[in-house]
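User: Okay, second chain of the day. Same drill as before: sequence in, structure tokens out.
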Amino acid sequence: MNNDRNPDKNQPRSPTLEDVARAAGLSPMTVSRALNNPKVVRPGTISRVMEAVNSTGYIPNMLAGGLATKRTKLIAVVVPQINNNMFVDTVQAIGDELALRGYHMLLCIVGYSTESETEIVSTLLTRRPDGMVLTGIHHSSDLKRVILNANIPVVEIWDMTPTPLDMLVGFSHEKIGHAIGHYFLEQDFTRFGLICASDRRAQVRKNGVIDVLRSRPGSFIRDITVTAPANMEVGRSGLSQLIEEDKAFDAIICTSDTLAQGAIMEAEARGLRVPQDLKVIGFADLNFAAHNRPAITTICVDKVKIGQQAANMLADKIEGHEVAESVIDIGFSLIVRESA
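Assistant: Same drill. Structure tokens below.
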């Protein structure tokens, strides 16, 4: 009698750890150590193991390894967006650095809704990541409770607070706003337009700018908030709205380089010369900012360093090493170029 539940003897079996060990000429224990904790294995041994993995087609059972070591080697990285390059360098640096430490990145895009962030993070935690990277410091109370209950290392990035959920690598958006405001007041400008993205961190930068500009009597300030995503099209429409309502401005302050690039394009389309007739400043020093014409004056933050620091802080804590500083302020610099 046929039994449908009997496996087909002709069906090829999946390669095992023992198959990899034989192909590499190593013990199964050495192969397991090379796959699960490469830091303690010689590079030459790792190379032999990976060649054997490739030749056999072996797929490591990370779940089984996680049951034994209580680790999955997964790090969840949560960012609001990557469609305008704001977070791309940081995400790449996290992934590269985690790979060097033997971990894998699970990337999730959550937008700017705290409800969406909470829902997605809760789902991510069912995959039992060893650690998590969150963007920003403003989270729902539900997410904070879920994170604390998960009891895993967490690094918040791209913001600043003395009281993070666990660890933090970032910078002060308020101080950036103040720096921009003082820069333009030193040039004796009086009429300012602000094109601001709708996310919380951009709004903090905008408010920091306005606080400084208002300190000088007679300053005229007009700000508008544009919808996400903050792309060049939105930058153009933002400047168009400002000019149609209030005509003359000395400087246009944008909360991203992409918005600034759009504002420059719109100014030129209207016959305005940047910087002769209108100064424009952005934020983040994205890869095109220095090569734009005119080159964009901007605020530079070390996006790669944020990612590297976050990855290593997580890996250190997961592996039981002491983290010397739980809060790292990487600072920022104002890069003066042609546009302002």
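The radius of gyration is 25 Å.

User: Thanks, on to the next one.
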